[in-house]
Amino acid sequence: MSDRARPETRCPVPHGDRRRTAPPGESGTPGVEVLDGTWHVRSLPLVRQVLREADATVQAGFSAETARKGLTGDHPPVLYADGPEHRRQRTATARFFTPAAVSRRYRDLMEERADELVERIRQEGRAELSAVTLRYSVEVAAQVVGLTNSDIDGMSRRLERFFSGPATGPAGGPAGGPLGRLRDRAGTVLGSLRPIWAMNAFRLRDVRPAITARREQPREDVVSHLLAEGCTDREILVECVTYAAAGMATTREFISVAIWHLLEDDRLREEYLAAEEPARHGILHEILRLEPVVGHLYRRTTRALVLEDGAERHEVPAGALLDLYVRQANSDEQAFGEDARQLCPERSRPRGIRPEVMSFGDGAHRCPGGFLAIQETDVFLQRLLRLPLELEHPPRVSWVELIAAYEVRDVVLRVGTGQGWRTPSPASTAR
User: Fold this and answer.
1) How far apart are CA 214 and CA 217, in angstroms?
2) Given 44, 98, 240, 267, which is the most exposed site by the fewest CB atoms within 10 A?
3) CB–CB of 403/249 below 8 Å?
4) Rounded to whole angstroms, what are the CA distances from 171 to 50, 182, 185, 222?
5) Residue 166's pLDDT is what?
6) Mean pLDDT of the chain
């Protein structure tokens, strides 16, 4: 048992577990467990320690170990690089993601697109939010990356096909028998080819035109930077896919889950709309703490590593795979108290822990676009939530193995009818 001090509960209104995307039966204990040779790490201090051990671990998530086998050239993708090369790449691109740069270069675009999309929802009276947020997040991230020489709607569709992965159903299916099994096998093969087709279309229709345009006239964006670094077209493609996952797919999901929370809690929504920007960001950070889009991170040790948390001591051998549970670390009761799974924007945190905790990662591979994602979400939601909105029914949550993230779909919004679906009130879900 750890000897860490537990903070006192800070939630003014107890309302039980407020997470909407936690897989059923997912446990936060024990803090460290070895299963089939993999080290499962769930406690906040130990997850943080592993992520900060840059000289003792390397990236093993996002199919990194498989991807490295096929990589050639002098410029490994930043997601898969480690050590001095990774630090060099991160330092070179940091200028695109500073709060000052994000506000100066992209805020006007965020506000313009948010105004257009919210007005369209108001006029139509109904919307499926994940479709709206896909276009919004793709257009903002495209400006940062430099993918601005193709049709945004088309690029959105291509990226969605790529990240959706194979579409498979239950064995046999409704038809049953050999015919049903044959159909399912065909569906599995076609599903496995869909990301390949989507990747090729993304390369030809989105990445290649951007590269051509920036060879002629460089801009202040990631593609122009990669060309200046001497990257090949293939290396630029891989980096564009990486930024698409980080800046488009994940932000889209967070916007959907944030609106879910804010629409089901009148008091929280009113507090959010009345607050200044720092307080609004604080609310969004707390939602993200509870609902990290990427729930697991993976590292492999390059040397023996000792994990220590109070009286706990674990000796991890070289070559071991570590599965880091972001969701459990973010709701670690030893770190946050018994109300760790409640939504409390004013909660106290251990020293040195950011309000979103591990949701953007930590250490060398911490997501550089954290501020961009929060500002992008805030600009859109503070406009959207001024409409009299309701959810027609509970959204649907599924999981994407490619990026170890959740998907929130069927977020159907209705404007001003007074008949929408609601979760039980906070009082009825109190412990």
Assistant:
1) 5
2) 267
3) yes
4) 40, 10, 9, 44
5) 44
6) 85
In the chain the first and final C-alpha atoms are separated, in Å, by: 25
pLDDT tens-place string over residues 329-341 = 999 999 999 999 9
**pLDDT at 395 exceeding the cut of 80:** yes
- Does residue 40 contact residue 347 with C-beta atoms inside 8 Å? no
Distances (CA, A) of 293 to 143, 398, 431: 22, 12, 26
3-class SS of residue 396: strand
Domain residue spans of the chain = 32-65+94-146+250-429
The amino acid at residue 364 is A
Residue 157 in tokens? 């569709």
CATH class of 32-65+94-146+250-429: mainly alpha
Residue 402's pLDDT band (cuts 50, 70, 90): low
Average confidence (pLDDT) over 237-251: 86
Global pTM exceeds 0.90? no
